[in-house]
């Protein structure tokens, strides 16, 4: 049996033996109040959700779940999820403070997700798109083999159906519990993006949220035809402490926030969450009105 066949058999058995987690019936936010990470103001959770998790005192964009982001961007009743039954496997039998398989199960129960990304198709202001949304609440949005495979299949589907692609990034990087398998996802996703963008002349918009770091930043996070970030989003490959210890020099505060990256030419736009859907809609209108240069072979 080849290595590819072995992985496919392991995944098939996992699908048969592991029940799909159900979405939590209650709001995952604990209590009636929460504190702003920026100004430390106390915020009423109900009003915070209605305000798209933006602090009414300082305008800071708080963490948002993948389901909330889908509701923010996709027109009601048009969302069609993909690969919901794909589940991760503990191929390495990895154990740190907790066994990897136990950590996965704990996160699945707590978040109601099967892994750290949701993918699917829907309409954004009437325009059909393919959308992938990472969720930092699931193991820090880490990119394992399931995240890589789901995004790869999403991009391939977008290419076949000539759909514009949007990926919302929120990740701590590659998932260490899967070792080299997680690092392989960077090259795999970049390869299908090259086919989507270069060979088929189709649009890919990358949206970077707090935080976007590690292998996601080093691959598909920064490969968008248009790269958008939320205000004050933390975007980096390595953390400040690691950079300072490696270079043996201090780096200025705010060096790795969206505004600094925009100033140095690494981003195209910084768009507040409240108007993000409208901005994307206008970009897609411009894209659809442009002459098509792709010729099927």
Explain what the structure shows.
This protein has two domains: 1-62, no CATH class; 64-289, Alpha-Beta Complex (2-enoyl-CoA Hydratase, Chain A, domain 1). Helix content is 37%, strand content 16%. It has ten helices and nine strands. The protein has helices spanning 3-17, 45-50, 66-73, 100-111, 145-160, 180-199, 214-217, 240-247, 258-263, 276-289; strands at 33-35, 42-44, 80-82, 117-124, 127-134, 165-171, 204-212, 226-229, 269-270. A hairpin with a 2-residue loop joins strand 4 and strand 5 (127-134). Helix 5 runs parallel beside helix 6. The radius of gyration is 19 Å and the shape is globular. The protein starts with a helix and ends in an 8-residue tail after the last helix. Mean pLDDT is 88; it is low at 15-28.
Quaternary form:
single chain
Helix content: 25-40%
Number of helices: 10
Spatial ordering of strands, largest sheet: 3-4-5-6-7-8-9
Taken in chain order, the helices and strands follow as: HEEHHEHEEHEHEHEHHEH
* Biggest sheet architecture: 7 strands, mixed
Could you name the ranges where pLDDT drops below 50 across 5 or more consecutive residues?
15-28
Number of strands: 9
CA gyration radius, whole angstroms = 19 Å
Secondary-structure content class: alpha/beta
CATH class (first level) name of the largest domain: Alpha Beta
């Amino acid at each position: 049996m080849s290595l590819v066949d072995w992985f496919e058999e392991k995944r098939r058995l996992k699908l048969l033996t592991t029940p799909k987690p159900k979405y939590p019936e209650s709001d995952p936010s604990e209590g009636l109040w929460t504190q702003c990470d920026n100004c430390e103001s106390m915020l009423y959770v109900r009003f915070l959700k209605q305000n798209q998790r933006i602090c009414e005192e300082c305008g800071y964009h708080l963490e948002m779940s993948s389901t909330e982001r889908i509701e923010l961007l996709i027109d009601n009743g048009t969302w069609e999820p993909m690969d919901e039954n794909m589940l991760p496997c503990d191929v390495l039998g990895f154990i740190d403070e907790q066994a990897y398989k136990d950590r996965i199960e704990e996160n699945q129960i707590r978040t109601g997700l099967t892994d750290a990304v949701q993918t699917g198709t829907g309409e954004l202001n009437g325009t059909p798109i393919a959308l992938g949304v990472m969720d930092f609440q699931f193991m820090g949005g880490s990119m394992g083999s399931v995240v890589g495979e789901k995004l790869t299949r999403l991009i391939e589907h977008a290419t076949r159906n000539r759909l514009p692609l949007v990926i919302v990034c929120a990740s701590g990087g590659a998932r260490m519990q899967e070792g080299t398998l997680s690092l392989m996802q960077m090259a795999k996703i970049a390869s299908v993006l090259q086919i989507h963008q270069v060979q088929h002349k189709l649009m890919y918009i990358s949206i970077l949220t707090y935080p976007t770091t590690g292998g996601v930043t080093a691959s598909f996070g920064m490969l968008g035809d248009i790269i958008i970030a939320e205000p004050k989003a933390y975007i980096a490959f390595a953390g400040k402490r690691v950079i300072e210890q490696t270079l043996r020099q201090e780096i200025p505060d705010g060096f790795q926030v969206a505004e600094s990256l925009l100033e140095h030419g690494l981003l195209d736009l910084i768009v507040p969450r409240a108007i993000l859907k409208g901005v994307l809609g206008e970009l897609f209108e411009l894209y659809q009105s442009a002459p098509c240069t792709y010729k099927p072979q």
